[in-house]
Specification:
With 401 residues, the protein is an alpha/beta fold. It is built from eleven helices and twelve strands. The protein has helices at residues 2-18, 20-40, 59-71, 86-97, 116-119, 144-151, 172-185, 237-247, 263-293, 318-330, 387-400; strands at 76-80, 103-106, 135-138, 155-159, 190-194, 213-217, 231-235, 297-299, 310-314, 352-355, 368-372, 378-382.
Length: 401
């Protein structure tokens, strides 16, 4: 254990001089923007109470939307507890923007597994985009074929995080360049970004660099570890309105819906989010440094640019993946005695193993790991509400390994 303690001390010395100051800069910029959102909307205790039933005239819900829009650098937003996941928010956004005869072009390869049935890449749901007459085209970046597809498409779709692939996560600079290139091909196309895991990891958000719409989960970055459920959609006002109609009903849109007395937690979680994301980024760079030193194949490396809170370790073997997740589970504050096993999970095409000793089920802003049981058997490590937890957990894992 003394050797691992020395290794962590060496890592912290190097990281504190090279990488972590960037995270501090991002934190201060993002936090001030969030604080300004609160003060400009004059948030008070009157915004914490929910209106029951239809939720008409809910001051808190309307103010929360405005605060989210400002914090995420978008003209408009809806933050709703009726979204059961980030996938649900993305689905509502796609359904709100795409109709029969439209085409959607993914420029970041295959989407996250849980969107496959939404699009119609797996299964045969009559509610999938393909069954409803929306064409889908997929490319790994821009090329001649992608350019041609964009010329007649309604939407260009960009997934910021890597999902369960090993491609590089898109940074804001990447998204900025892509948006400019897409606009040069077709100026009026809708550019939509899956922003899950990416909020507050950099000083700007996708809607500040040309994206028309983005969506994510409240139990990831923007919930700050406090919000127990929900998702958000942010972007152009007209598009957000259409997405709100897809969530509720035309004519109701964003004007209805009970907030379940969770509005205060959503405000407080957003207020804390930039700081908690900094803790997660520090945690993941420590993991990258330590596991690379231990001989593991890590991505990104500790000193590479980061656009999300995920650290990937390619393990190459299902037993190693199970062992890794089991060790993390044992170092978790909740259900530490539980042994994670691979199983079928709704929305996924392969069995998935998840180390989820978290206070909120599936909250990947908390220190957790998961991975599909398929080659190359990679573990997707993410989060960390506090750096101290990640530091202790990583030390225990390395000692056991």
């Amino acid at each position: 254990m003394r050797d691992i303690a020395a290794l962590i001390a060496q890592a912290e010395q190097e990281l504190s001089q090279s990488v972590w100051p960037r995270f501090d800069t991002t934190y201060y910029v993002a936090f001030e923007r969030v604080l300004n959102a609160f003060t400009q909307q004059r948030i008070g205790e009157e915004h914490f109470a929910s209106v029951t039933g239809y939720g008409h005239d809910d001051l808190g819900r309307a103010a929360l939307d405005a605060v989210f829009a400002h914090a995420l650098q978008a003209p408009a937003a809806i933050a709703r507890f009726q979204f059961v996941s980030g996938t649900h928010a993305l689905c509502a956004a796609l359904n709100g923007c795409l109709q029969a005869g439209d085409a959607m072009v993914s420029l970041t390869g295959a989407p996250y597994d849980t969107l496959e049935e939404v699009i119609g890449l797996r299964g045969d749901s009559p509610l999938s985009l393909r069954r409803r007459g929306v064409a889908y085209h997929q490319f790994d970046g821009l090329d001649t074929a992608a350019d041609d597809a964009l010329k007649t498409a309604k939407m260009a779709y960009l997934q910021r995080s890597r999902g369960y692939s090993l491609r590089r996560t898109l940074t804001i600079d990447d998204l900025d360049a892509l948006c400019r290139q897409i606009r040069a091909i077709r100026a009026d196309i809708i550019i939509m970004v899956d922003n899950c895991y990416g909020e507050f990891t950099e000083t700007r958000e996708p809607t500040a660099v040309g994206a028309d719409l983005m969506a994510g989960s409240l139990i990831k970055n923007p919930g700050g570890g406090l919000v127990p459920t929900g998702g958000y959609i942010a972007g152009r006002r007209d598009l957000v309105g259409q997405c709100a109609d897809a969530l509720t009903a035309p004519g109701i849109g964003s004007a209805g819906g009970y907030s379940f007395d969770l509005t205060r937690l959503a405000f407080q979680g957003l207020f804390l989010a930039p700081g908690v994301v900094r803790e997660a980024l520090k945690s993941m760079t420590l993991a990258a440094w330590l596991f690379e030193q231990a001989g593991y194949d890590v991505a990104p490396r500790f000193d590479e640019p980061r656009g999300d809170i995920i650290q990937t370790l390619t393990l190459g073997d299902p037993q190693r993946l199970e062992t890794f997740c089991g060790l993390l589970q044992a170092a978790s504050p909740v259900s530490s005695a539980v042994k994670p096993i691979a199983s079928e999970v709704p929305g996924y095409g392969d069995p998935v193993i998840m180390a989820g000793g978290t206070f909120i089920q599936g909250a990947t802003l908390e220190l957790s790991a998961d991975g599909p049981l398929r080659p190359p058997y990679a573990a997707f490590l993410q989060g960390g509400l506090t750096y101290a937890h990640a530091r202790v957990a990583l030390a225990r894992m390395l000692q056991a390994l």
